[in-house]
Amino acid sequence: MRLSRQLFVTLRDEPADAEVRSHALMARAGFLQKISAGIYVYGPMLWRVLRKIENIVRTEHDEAGCSEMLMPALQPRELWEESGRWDRYVTDGILFNFKDRKGSEVCLGPTHEEVITKYVASQVQSYKQLPVTLYQIQTKFRDEIRPRFGLMRGREFIMKDAYSFDVGADEMVESYAAMRQVYSNIFTRCGLGFTQVEADSGAIGGSGSEEFMVDADTGEDAIAVCKATGYAANLEKAVSVIPAGAACEAVVEMHKENTPGAKSCDALLKLFPELPLTRMLKTVLYHVDYSNGSAGVVAVMCRGDRELNEIKIVNHLDALNIELASEAEVKSATGADVGFAGPIGLAAEVRLLADSSVNGVEGFLCGGNETDAHYLDVHFDRDMPQPETCDFGTVQSGDSVVDGDDVIEITRGIEVGHIFQLGTKYSDAMGANFLDAQQKTQPIHMGCYGIGVSRVAAAAIEQNHDDAGMMWPMPIAPYAVHLIQMKPGNDEQDALAQEMHDTLEAAGCDVLWDDRKKVSPGIK
């Protein structure tokens, strides 16, 4: 391909709003152009990269026996209400939804579980038609609150989504395992270093879930990894054994102390320097919107040296959404200003939970439910009942794996693939059934599998660049060879460059022939 015949414009400077190297380098090299927040034009060079990624994706899926199809981007509200996901996605604020001229509400699909389930329900009647796996490569839409990082978090993006359909749970697990291997093949062929991690299913639902993370220091996702055991999990899902806290050396009566302005553990350490963080228990209040339409306030305790994991809290409560309680809600629940909430004397309607980090803590400090006051030397069972306890904590570097003493470290990655075991979540809701060998009606067991095609391109640059620019892995590079002609228009050079170009292309190489005139060798 002659570069002189291409629309190829580079920038002298990087965009001011570029927060990561992939965005800065692609924009400067003319690979993409921002049209609006999270919306980009894919230039010819980037499109070649995306097509190569898509070709790898297609080849691996086709060889695994999957069938490609295409579903509509525009979806009616009724489908999403059948599955029960409309309210959650609207509440989360990520759904592009609007009314057509007839007043019917529709959305631009961020995912296609509803459409594919409805389609398969109309096509499959017998167990003899299963298993089957269908996939598509299509533009998806998410109304991100803060689009950022170029192609990493856009409002419009290219995605491959696949869906498997099986007669039972065991068969679903087999399809899931087969697709896990397909994904490993794809990312290996793309030339990426990646980690496969346990993950939370989120709004998609289902049971088992794993993510494929491209290893990169700039990744949005934190990953808990133990190199000794091979354990790896997204921080939203990760579990661990935490280091033991300091013991209580003397048992004394619970008492209340004045703590003016001490709204944080750091401030309390200055007032009580002899008291370790492991004997300070935080109480965080959340406003909770439940999936049944009700709402309320929940208080969650955890050790002072630990942080809460809100995803785990959402899952435990079967909630649509949680957010920190407002000042008014805190005042109503505790009688105190924000920063002094505690477990003793909460309003009756407030549900009290605790992270498992509080187990075994004795003689602890906690909020006094009174402005500028905290309780000290509190003991469970003696001074207050042991609260409902579960793992609500965020894993930290230095924690141990659950089944041993090996240490966990926190690394970062970019999610490029996510696979789910859905079970019968959508089949039950939308009537996707089949007749088994005994002519009895059974629900279809489903799996779903996504790859962010456009995100793969960005992740490849985050993992492969230097100070001079992008260093594409060969399988997805826009061109395999960059042929630079120093003096276009020189008869001898023209002939030699043409010969080299033709020879390389005949050998199966993608060649970018830079034959631009009036462009210095340094610029080329």
Question: Which descriptors apply to this entry?
Answer:
BirA Bifunctional Protein, domain 2; YbaK protein; 3 domains; 9-stranded mixed sheet; 5-stranded mixed sheet; 28 strands; globular
Characterization of this structure:
With 524 residues, this protein is an alpha+beta fold. It has three domains: 248 residues, 2-Layer Sandwich (BirA Bifunctional Protein, domain 2), CATH 3.30.930.10; 136 residues, YbaK protein (Alpha-Beta Complex); 46 residues, Rossmann fold (3-Layer(aba) Sandwich). The chain is built from twelve helices and 28 strands. The strands form eight sheets. Strands 3, 7, 8, 9, 10, 11, 12, 21 and 24 form a nine-stranded mixed beta sheet that branches. The protein has a five-stranded mixed beta sheet with strand order 16-14-15-17-20, sandwiched between helices. The longest helix is centred in the middle third of the chain and has 21 residues. The model has no long low-confidence stretch (mean pLDDT 94).
List the helices and strands and how they pair.
Layout: H1 21-28, E1 32-36, E2 39-42, H2 44-63, E3 67-68, E4 74-76, H3 77-83, H4 86-92, E5 96-99, E6 105-108, H5 113-123, E7 132-141, E8 156-166, H6 169-189, E9 194-198, E10 209-215, E11 221-226, E12 231-234, E13 255-258, H7 265-271, E14 281-290, E15 295-303, H8 310-317, E16 319-324, H9 327-334, E17 351-355, E18 364-367, E19 373-378, E20 388-390, E21 409-423, H10 425-430, E22 433-435, E23 441-443, E24 445-452, H11 453-463, E25 465-466, E26 469-470, E27 481-484, H12 491-506, E28 511-514
Parallel strand pairs: 3-7, 15-17, 17-20, 27-28
Antiparallel strand pairs: 1-2, 4-6, 5-6, 7-8, 8-24, 9-10, 10-21, 11-12, 11-21, 13-19, 14-15, 14-16, 18-19, 21-24, 22-23, 25-26
Helix pairs in contact: 1-11, 2-6, 2-11
